[in-house]
């Protein structure tokens, strides 16, 4: 939506507030005059640059910058407020709305009706482009640009997309076996890696690897992303018989355009890595804007994004920047990583990177929750059944942890362990294998090792060899009444077994709904 459309769809009071904010000299009673004055100024790049420079409060300027660097077409009220809270951090209750009103009064945002009549917040496309250019120039003043050409650089282009296709083609032509914990046999891993454009080595013994994908602890970084993407998009499937096969959506993916695959891979990576790096969207936007056209020293980029990248467990922030952001953007083909003659590393956004990172509004966005800060730090479930829990996150799920696990130790993390006895305790308290796994999937960002999942199901089946149930016997005068009762949606979930045409058993929890139904129908409803 362009600025002229936003202004035309706004009421005259909104236009008056914008004109007053900038002391425009025009008729305040004419909507047409107000529109012309605002368009004349807002389409003047010098005016926008001066307006941005005039934002003296650094947190407020940061809020404007983050909104402009965001790629969403429209925002909900909660999403705008989340940005305000994250950047400005209002000290008093209700002040977030005050800052939001300022964004509207100064014309950075427009509150309009979207499809379906709901209210949304828009940033005009032409205004966003102008502000992005201004911000890009401002960012370039904060980084060090080199005039030298790197003696060597890595630009992987769409190699990751092509290697994904190679992997799927290999599965189509070979029988691939996986171990009990769900990993491809080492020999076949080596065969697959040898076919890929970008070579990696199988993992040896490592001290820790978690947080950056479902199979991150099993495979090297690049292939772990490739594998997790294929699994999440149902391009591959792990069978109960220990085979890795093509998934139901592999054919459709292989028929799609290469650019669409690249865009989808990038969106998946950003969503996956957003949990360990909550400010990943902001960080990537900064890198894209600062290194858009020229080679920039990596050290200066690191300094620029340092406030938004934190340590992740045992991995320090510089390592997170280098391995989890720069290297992965290179693997995705969005960033080129070079080295000058003196050995200094430099970065530059590639052509594909400019398309996906800076013009992302042309691509479908993944649905997100209200804001990145709302994302909880996930727990880490290791293949050895240890569950690593941050100290600050334990209280929220203390009851569930006590039910599902045994506490092993507490130091910088709480270390819990899933055991056969802890699962037996869960089952005694009404849990099922599925509800246990649902809890673990939710709290670990769907990163439950395959061997853990299988063992929990196996323990459940062992415990269920003999079961005792409290049930209620229902006796009806004739078979038709019994059939009608059993077919009722309130009763069907509690149905245990048929005794005969006129008698059946239901779980205790179904007794009360059945009594209420019988009373409404005029039948005897007391338990005998």
UniProtKB/TrEMBL annotation:
Pfam families (alphabetical): Helicase_C_3 (PF13625)
* Domain Helicase XPB/Ssl2 N-terminal: residue ranges: 379-495
* Domain of life, per lineage: Bacteria
Per its record, how is this protein called by name? Helicase XPB/Ssl2 N-terminal domain-containing protein
